[in-house]
Each structure stands twice: as structure tokens, then as C-alpha cells.
Amino acid sequence: MAQLTDDCFAFGGPLLSVEAAVALMRERVPVLAGIETVPLLDADGRIAASDVTAAIHLPPFDNSAVDGYAVRHTDLHAAGETVLPLSGRIAAGGSIEGLTVSGNAARIFTGAPMPVGADTVFMQEDVRVEDHQVVLPSGLKHGANRRFAGEDVKAGSTIIPAGRRLRPQDLALAAAAGSTMIAVRRRLRVAVFSTGDELCEPGAALRPGAIYDSNRIMLVALLRRLGLAVNDLGLLRDDPALLKDRLSEAAAGHDLILTTGGVSTGEEDHVKAAVDAVGRLVVWRLGIKPGRPVAMGLIAGTPFVGLPGNPVAAYVTLLFVVRPLIARLGGGEYQPPPGIPARAAFDYAKKAGRREFVRVSLSRATDGSFEAVKYPRDGAGALSSLTGSDGLAQLDEARTRLQQGEIVEVLPHALLW
Q1: Residue 347 near residue 403, CB atoms below 8 Å
Q2: Span 357-409, pLDDT tens digits
Q3: How far apart are CA 309 and CA 261, in angstroms?
Q4: CB 79 within 8 A of CB 138
Q5: Tens digits of per-residue pLDDT, 179-202?
Q6: By C-alpha distance, which of 117, 103, 113, 120 is closest to 69?
Q7: Which of 178, 232, 330, 359 could hold 375 in an S-S bridge, CB 3.0 to 4.6 Å?
Q8: Whether 261 contacts 309, CB under 8 Å
Q9: Which structural domains are found in the chain, ordered by start?
């Protein structure tokens, strides 16, 4: 398994912006995922390992865009109706061998190849058929309702760029262009732990002072949505020796280790010390809220990321810090999540130099625009703020105040994953 260099996560500068963190990872972190070739039906959600080119033109031949009648435009009268005899019938998949259009018209159906000489198609509802002749109105422009060979895709052109996370529409285009197999990056293998003596597995009896572990469920589900091979390794207790052993074992069989909690500087935050004992750890100070400093490091050459223990902070840092790292390790291109403009229905103050994500609900105003309503609770531990909101209003580093009525970019949860 490929390994990272010891200094790839080294960073000792001031507060790091989200964009700077992503750029640093793209610069210093190599692609770890190997390449395999799979059938198109098994490629959804995978990362294209190389450019895919079209083996043929799309469409492969000139064809009709409608059900109607194919003619030669020079046979039409400039004014008044044109009456042409019918010379043949062409269905989709049919042959045009020996069929020409010169001084006559051919019945044609959507997707059928254009007969020799034909360059224009009348829609069937625009004409009359009388005694094996078709009566055509004037005014139809040359080339109407005709699809040209290669007008969608030219043979030899790139139809899927390397690094794209494949979607059903990509696979359909590849199939239409003649592909049956596609080279993709191997799925990254990710180990996920939760840490802390206060955590209990859901369904177990809840001890005094304990809480049920929810972060791991959320992280595993989100990572699987990204197409990763996720291994849920359960809870890690605050036992330094056990932590070191379990983390070392995970490093041997995974491309990435992800934990939540235990990476701060408190006396009971044992994960940081365990990683330092078996590898190297750097705490990145990111200008992001919610989200505390994120721990990035290496264990036997395998990247490690320690996320905050608060669930909303874990959600945000997974989205804006870990997801770009995953894209790089897996050979994919990272694109920031899409947002939509909305009018703020609240006032908000923040510090300069920090990007903040405010949980909001969206509603339609009478003019059809979106209005963003702030969720009433701000805490990074309030899971209900994720289920009760529609998305995250993104406030950039330069902004210090958002006033009611101003436009803000909202990242809907439904578009993030």
C-alpha cells in the first residue's frame, strides 16, 4: 500500500483558511488509490482513473428528431404548399439502402436514419396525406428536425475526464459511445472509530454519565455515500495502550483512519498522545466554525484525521476538510459544494478571519426567491439542528455582520452528499 511522507501534513503557520487547507492537501498529499477496470453497471459512484473518449460519433448517423416526413429542401416551393409523392418508410433501426429522396418524400420516424438526399423533416402533425402524397406547408427552414452525425459528441473526444466521480448520466454517455468497461480508482478503505469512556453503543443499557455514540453512525453513513469502503471499528476506550494498538492495527489495512473526539489538549484526551506515540500528529488551526482545530497525521504512513467530538462540528469538518482529502487520496477532483442564494431572515454577527456555517431552514417568499431562517439553537452538540434545518448558510472570512434582508449563500444538506 502506498504511503505518505512524514511532512505532508506539517503546518505551523497562523490560522488556516478552508481554501488554503484544501490547496495544501492538493499540493502535498499523493493519490493512494490504485486502478481497476470494471463493467459500466458497477461503476456508479466510482472515480474515473483516466479520460474516457468516444469510440464513435453521437449520433452515429444523420437521423430524424421527430416522427414525420423527410424531404430535400430544394424540392419545396418558396410560397404556397408543396405536394410530393411518398417514396418509402423508414423506422428507427431500419435500412435506407437503395432509398433516395429527390422530388418525393419519405415517411420517417424519430431516430431513423435520413435517406440519401434528405436534409429536412416535417413534423407529421404539420402536414396532410392524400392519395399516397404528402401536402407540405411553406416556411420550414432548411435542416429542420434533422440531427447530424456527431452533433452531440465527436468520435475521439473526451466524454468523461479523469477524476470525475461517475454518475448514472456519465455511464449512459459512455455506453452510448461504445464503452462496456471503464478504468476507475480502487475504493479507498477507511477505518472509523469513536473515542471516549463516556460513549455507549446504541441499544445498550445507558450507564450513569454516559451517552449513546451517534457520531460514528453519521460518519459511516456519509462516507459510504461518497463511495468509500468503510470499516466500522467501533468504540475506543480512553486506554493509552489500547489506543496505540488499535490505531496501529487499523493503519496496516486501511488508506485512512478517522476518529472523533480525544484530540484536544485535556488530561483525558488520549488519542493525540496515542497517535504521537505510533506516528506523527499535527493540529491544524482552521478558520472554521463550528469546528475546533482538526488533528491530521500519519500512522505507519497511513493518514489519520481526528475530528471534533461535537456532532455538528464533526459534520462540518468532514464536509470541508476531510472530503477534499478523500478526493485527493482517491484520485478524484474536489469541487466545493454548490450553494443557492437566499435572503436572510435574521441578523448575525461573527469574527473576521473565520468562515462560519449557520444552520438554516429555507422557505419560498411570495416573489419565488428563497428565504433563510436561522435555526434557534447554535450549539455544536445539537444534533437536532442538522435534522431540523435544510442547510448551512455560509458566511465568508471577510464578513463580520449579516443583516436581515441581505443575500447569503446556503448549502442545502440535500446537495452536499
Answers
A1: yes
A2: 999 999 998 888 999 999 998 888 899 999 999 999 999 999 999 999 999 99
A3: 4
A4: yes
A5: 999 999 999 999 999 988 899 999
A6: 120
A7: 359
A8: yes
A9: 18-34+187-329 (3.40.980.10), 63-147 (2.170.190.11), 340-416 (2.40.340.10)
